[in-house]
Give the backbone structure.
Amino acid sequence: MFIKTRSGPVKRAIFTVLQRMPDHARRRVQEFISVIWAQRDYSTFGLDGIDRASAGLFPLYNNLKEIGEKEYAAQVIVTLPIFHLFSPRAQVGIIAHEFAHAERASRLGSGWHEQMQSRYSAEEKLADAIAIRWGFGADISVLHNERHTTVNPIFEARVPKIMRRLNEE
């Protein structure tokens, strides 16, 4: 697993989770995830949507021919403008949640991303349950609380400005 970011908060959260998670899960996650990197700007989808995710587990294709295939590597992408709205404790919860997705995906095998996307809501709950089982219950609780009470209201207030800036680019 290659960590490709200079972001101190992201690296601290990664190292905290790696230190606290069970050994067997850590080994599996480190073997499964090829790279963790941070993007400095928001991602858009559709004509008027901004991805509200602070991080995600995604396929990593080595070349364009692999797109659409069921065999690919895994990457975690952290969206810094959203990730930085959370407290350090919630940031640990974010990384634990994504590593829980990775641990589960490693067991699904080929086509793991499509399988997980087809059951998105259930997979989100399952990732939280795995992270809680690893001992990150308090971090996950803080993550959810901050998402609803702090991060979402701040983010929603910024959406018009973000959309204007993205449309100008």
The beta strands are 2-4, 33-39, 44-45, 49-50, 55-60, 73-79. The chain has one domain: 2-168.
